[in-house]
Amino acid sequence: MWENEGGEGRIAVRLPGQILMSVFIVISAVFVFYGATETSWTFDRNGLVGILISLGLPGSDLTNYSIWNVGLLLIEHEVTNNFLEAFTIMFCCVCCIG
Q1: pTM above 0.90, yes or no
Q2: Are 97 and 36 in contact (CB under 8 A)?
Q3: CA 37 to CA 72: how far, in whole Å?
């Protein structure tokens, strides 16, 4: 898999090694996207407010959030004041998360 014809201080990789590295990169991207879409935290409303919310619709006092979900909520509600904030949120959603 490894050969040493890449020059001094460099290692050249044969075709099976290149394919293996490409597969590892794709697999890690899939795991990152899956992890970003899984529930990261939940927000449970307790006390009188939670009881009143549950009276209207049972189970609605519990809200699940993921990293991807929060980024999209920020974009949807446009919690940005200028271009740089909007660009940062879009960049994190598209490039960093998935």
Answers
A1: no
A2: yes
A3: 11
